[in-house]
Amino acid sequence: MAIVKCKECGKDVSNSADTCPNCGIKSPGENQQSVIDISERKVTPAFGLAILFIPFIFAWFTLRKGYSTQAKVLAFSWMIFIAYQMFINDKPQPTTNSSSTVSTKSDNTDAECLKTLQCWGEKHAISAGAYCQRPIEKLAKYSFEWLDGAFTPRFSYYRWKDQSQGLVTYIGDKIKLQNGFGAWSNYTYECDFNPATNTVIDVRIGQGTL
C-alpha cells in the first residue's frame, strides 16, 4: 500500500482512496508523490540466512528503517554471541593438566622399567652408545677403529652400576687400538652411564675381547 499526502488538506491518505476521509475531496492522491509504507519490513528467509552465517555484515542492515526492534535485537545478539565464541576459541588453552598427565604416565613407565635391568638397559643403550663414544676414544693413545656396524650393537652387555639411581655400566668390545709400534689389538671397554641426565660417569678400556 502507498501513502500519499492529500492534495487538498495535506493529511496522509491511501493513493487508492476515492475521497479523502479528512476533507472529502475526490481523488485525493492524484498527482501526489507516493510514500511507501515501510513501517514493518519483513526479514525474508534469505536475509535471515545471511544474518545467521555472516552476522558481522548483515546484522547492520536491520538498522534500516522499518525493521522491528525484535529483528534488530535478535540480529545483534547473534552477532555478539559469534564474536564471543571466536574470542574464547582464540584464547590459549591451559595445558597444565594434560602436561601433568603425560608426565605422570612417563614417570610411572620409567619406574616400572627401572625394576628390571633388561628393560632399563635396552631402553637407554642407544643414548649410551652416543654419549660414551667420545670419552672411550679419548683413552686411545694412538689411532683407533670402531668395529660395530648398523646391525652390530656397540654395547653387547650391561650391568647395574647403581639401580637405586638408575646408573648402568655398558660393556662392549667393538674397537681396535693401535700401539706405538703400529700394531693393532682388540680392546674391551666399559662406560658408567646415567640415563636420567645423559651423563658419562666413567669409562675404562682393557686389551682383549668378551
Can you walk through the features of this model?
The protein contains six helices and eight strands; from the N terminus they run E-E-E-H-H-H-H-H-H-E-E-E-E-E. With 210 residues, it is of the alpha+beta class. Strands 4, 5, 6, 7 and 8 form a five-stranded antiparallel beta sheet that branches. A hairpin with a 4-residue loop joins strand 7 and strand 8 (199-207). It is rod-shaped, with a radius of gyration of 44 Å.
Oligomeric state of shown chains? single chain
N-to-C series of helices and strands:
EEEHHHHHHEEEEE
**Poorly predicted tracts of residues:** 34-38
Q: Whole-Å distance between the termini?
A: 107 Å
| Sheet of most strands | 5 strands, antiparallel
Structural class by helix and strand composition? alpha+beta
Proportion in β-strands: 15-25%
- Global outline: rod-shaped
- Tally of alpha and pi helices: 6
Rg on CA atoms, Å: 44 Å
Give the helix proportion (percent range): 25-40%
